[in-house]
Amino acid sequence: MTLDQAKEGQRVRIEGFVGDDLVLQRLMEMGLLEDEEVEVVGFAPLGDPMEIRLRDYRLSLRQSEAARIRVILILPDS
Predict the structure, then answer these.
(1) Is 70 among the domain residues?
(2) What is the pLDDT of residues 9-57, one digit of tens each?
(3) Cα-based angle 67, 23, 11 (whole degrees, multiple of 5)
(4) 50: exposed, middle or buried (Cβ count in 10 Å: 0-12, 13-18, 19+)
(5) 3-state SS assignment for residue 19
(6) CA nearest 41: which of 66, 76, 11?
(7) Which of 3, 23, 46, 67 is exposed most, by the fewest CB atoms within 10 A?
């Protein structure tokens, strides 16, 4: 799945990226790296951009950027 498919409140782990260009380089420079955990905080009223929590800060991403980040869902503790 990709980050744009995650729902509000879900926690995911970054598995990798789709493509290889300057946009992805910029995302990695902002701290979006493989094995990082991310929480989806919410979405703008029309769904774009989305807000995520990464470490101790929040970041807004366009849906087109989030669609290029492969993630796996972290299941809540039962």
Answers:
(1) no
(2) 999 999 999 987 898 899 999 999 999 999 999 999 998 999 999 999 9
(3) 40
(4) buried
(5) coil
(6) 11
(7) 46
Domain assignment present for residue 75? The answer is no
pLDDT of residue 78: 52
Tally of domains within the chain: 1
Q: What is the CATH number of the domain that holds 22?
A: 2.30.30.90
In a domain, 21, yes or no: yes
* Type of residue found at 21: D
- Is residue 28 assigned to a domain? yes
Q: For 2-7, what is the mean pLDDT?
A: 97
Is the pTM higher than 0.70? The answer reads: yes
> In terms of C-beta distances under 8 Å and separation of at least 24 residues, what long-range contacts does 16-20 make, across chains too?
16/70, 17/68, 17/69, 17/70, 18/67, 18/68, 18/69, 18/70, 19/68
